[in-house]
Amino acid sequence: MIPRETTRLVAEGGLDFHTPSLADFFPDAILFAGTPFEFNRVQLVRLIVVVGCLAITYAIASRAKIVPGRIQSIFELFMGFIRDNAIEPVLGKSKGRRFAPMLYTLFFLVLSMNLAGVTPGLNLAGTSVIGMPLMLALWTFATYVICGMKQHGVLGYIKHETMPPGVPKPVYFLLVPIEFLQLALVRWFSLTIRLLANMVAGHMMLVVFISLTQALLLSGSLLMIASPFAGVFALGIYGFEVFVALLQAFIFTILASVYINMATSESH
């Protein structure tokens, strides 16, 4: 994908190389420009991903069999992996079943939004603009805070999170503000930035090498010889981005499990 608004570098020998910029993540409006309901390419990608996820899960669920077919087997393989590595080891079986629908939804939604960045025709991750990562992080934040308060009460939950037992009392003067800041801000903010930064960086790297390959190939000079090497790098980064998409979806899900478990546990 060649970005709409880019910085152009024209070197000797006719190399016309378009570098990516943050303008990729803020495209022109498709509908309702200049209003709070502005709809652009980022929202379009997200809408396509959400509709695709709903259609695929409905099709799998409506045709589910005791002896699964190929697509159902792949879907169940992912669910089993998340259950066995991100839900039950952290929350246990009882709490794991309680929060499994939310955590499965988080994993598949983050994964699908991430993979949009390497999907031909979409070429932009739905999580590469802050709105989606922030919404998912705040959903996680609201879940563990509400569940923690239900279990411990409002004041009991704040004490549970900010005053771990076994600490000398004078240390609480320093520890309580730090722990409260972590509870109120750091957890959901770190979830947001971790996911966002990885998707932005991946998009930038992929566009750089795809654009460079094209520029070298069309340079009309001896630089054409280097185009296969740039293409190999582009393919390598493409594969790496698929891995990062999976990894970030897994990390987001397991951290959500950890935060929920911390909020609902009887002791620190």
Task: Characterize this entry briefly.
A two-stranded antiparallel sheet has the order 1-2.
Note down, in words, how this protein is organized.
This protein is mainly alpha-helical. It contains 6 helices and 4 strands; from the N terminus they run ββββαααααα. It has helices at about 40-60, 70-115, 130-150, 155-160, 170-215, 225-265, and strands at about 5-10, 15-20, 30, 40. The strands form 2 sheets. The protein has a two-stranded antiparallel ribbon. α3 packs antiparallel against α5 (about 170-215). The longest helix is centred in the middle third of the chain and has 46 residues, at about 70-115. The protein starts with 6 loop residues before the first strand and ends with a helix. The model is unreliable at about 1-15 (pLDDT under 50).
Task: List its salient traits.
268 residues; mainly alpha; two-stranded antiparallel sheet; two-stranded antiparallel ribbon; 6 helices
